[in-house]
Amino acid sequence: MATFLYKLGRLAFRRRHFAALIWVALLTLAGVGAASAPVAGSSSFSIPGTEAQKAFDLLESRFPGMSADGATARVVFKAPAGEKMGDKDNKAAVEKAVKVLGTGSEVTSVTDPFKTQAVSKDGTIAYASVRYEVSGMELKDASKDALEAAAEDARHSGLTVEVGGDALQATPETGSSEVIGIAIAAVVLVITFGSLIAAGLPLLTALIGVGIGVSTITALASALDLGSTTSTLAMMIGLAVGIDYALFIVSRYRAELAEGREREEAAGRAVGTAGSAVVFAGLTVVIALVGLSVVNIPMLTKMGVAAAGTVVIAVLIALTLVPALLGYVGRRVQPAGQKSKLLGGGRAAKKADKPNMGTRWASFVVRRPLAVLLLGVIGLGAAAVPAASLQLGLPDDGSQPVSTTQRRAYDLLSDGFGPGFNGPLMVVVDAKASDAPKTAFSTVHDKIEDLKGVVSVSPAAPNKAGDTAMITVIPDSKPSSVTTEDLVHTIRGAGAGIKADTDATVLVTGSTAMNIDFSQKLNDALIPYLALVVGLAFLLLIVVFRSILVPLKAALGFLLSVMAALGAVVAVFQWGWLSGLMGVEETGPIMSMMPIFMVGVVFGLAMDYEVFLVTRMREAFVHGEKPGQAIVTGFKHGARVVTAAAVIMIAVFSGFIGSSESMIKMIGFGLAIAVFFDAFVVRMALVPAVLALLGKRAWWLPRWLDRALPNVDVEGEGLRALDERTDDGDHDRKLVGV
Most buried of 97, 356, 730, 735 (most Cβ within 10 A)? Predict the structure, then answer.
């Protein structure tokens, strides 16, 4: 592989105009496609194989035209202080609003709170339910504007009016912190390279890659049902890996220049050596992201595949566009150890014989491996303690910022009708196989009404055929509580006895039940997902490092860092530690997809540092150095760059903590803290400590396996052989007088 990539790097450097033209054309094509594509909303939500989804599908077939997955809105009215909703003027304002809401072209039904008894016991709060024929993602802007206008008109009468539900979905905003993250990355690159030009290359290529990836996602969003969250996550990961991959290529290019090689040759060598590590690091990230498809949740699969596509683009750009741009900038990129005239006058930055920080740190770890290992493991273990109290759930309107109308509507409904009113359960009774459907409906109603934790049960509402009915159940606890989850399981458990008595099937659905099933499916998929992703990456790393213990150590280190990161997420978003600093307005359960998504993304990124750092050690060991010295050599050449890459990734991920969407905020924080733990504790401390303790055993591989594995030549041994052939050829030509 090293020889092939070496030739590719030289070709891109030599044919730089052609390489740059291809990428500019791809960026233009993707941009045109994105500009002409319809705007994407939140992707549709389905969980194949769950009871909640089966109930939704049954409602679609038995209640035609009902639009069970259509958008809903609750317009909540509160009377002025000292007044009641039943007062003449207040009642007239509500009835007028209901009438206006019913005129919408996409509205299927609107309820009058005075006819449906949707008024609180103290008479101060009432609500009207609005149902639409399309989902919140497909709802036209005109319908949303009409909903907001009706609420605003009612406010003019003196009422407090707020709107909840999924009909009004706020577009997530990342704010200025994302730009700050990129600015920090730029500063780190300038410090690392000592050159504005060299620092600008990784930023430029990463932005081009992200531009192509996100524009392609935007262009295909409508056709493939990709939500706005998909492009945000692709941007987050694409920026981080795009900068890092280009950083490693440019860094190795400068190191090759420092050894006296011509620029085209240095570009080829950089792509042949560091490029090999980029390819395998990218493969681990892609495996981790595409592996999310094993969960069998379409939304998660699309997010993973889209982000993986952006990573593939970042790898291809690092291998082709980066060497092409190096050809354009020429001598403005200095050899390693030199700064540009603007930042240091072109003089040497350090004496050649003075060990750098990476060398000094690695030498210390090699001398005290056991102490460093124990300290690192204990520290990560302490950070992971909060993960033991992890509670999973999905965000609802109660987790929205208090400045939003959705959150204020949620609070008003809780005050007027109880916390469970924000998460009603929809019980679907399929009595098609029953001889007495009406009796079955009555039996289900009575059974549920007698259950603990139930505030109210609506009368059964059958369809026209009379073989299926809906029953609405109001719990006495909020949607995200464990008590509500227990009630869902209790109703489902009672369904077995009801079926035996009446031949009717009982299914529980609704947004609350859907969230519970979603969390359960993710929990069930976590172990198979871990086995698949870690197993495939383990095999890949065996090929890369030609070792059994090094990949095993890499996987165990990853588990430590991801558990510590989950502990930090629980401490901030569930316990509320530093919540004010992070802008967390409401603590609560951790988003259900957070653990499995963190496992996927962090594993891929962790293997990046493992490959980049340990490949240098492996290269030194293969070329004859003793194990301890190989560790020091690997840190001498790689520690500075890996540190810069980690700081850049942390800065980019931290930029998304400023997002207004709780999921993006949580993922941004989780990935940033996970990279910190993995890069600076696991890879910089535990990895050299373990390798120092193992010695030569770290690179042991059974002979039969060594013969069976393909030789991918990540260390660039083929390039060394090429040097020897070149030297021999030069010698032969001198002998014959050429």
Answer: 97
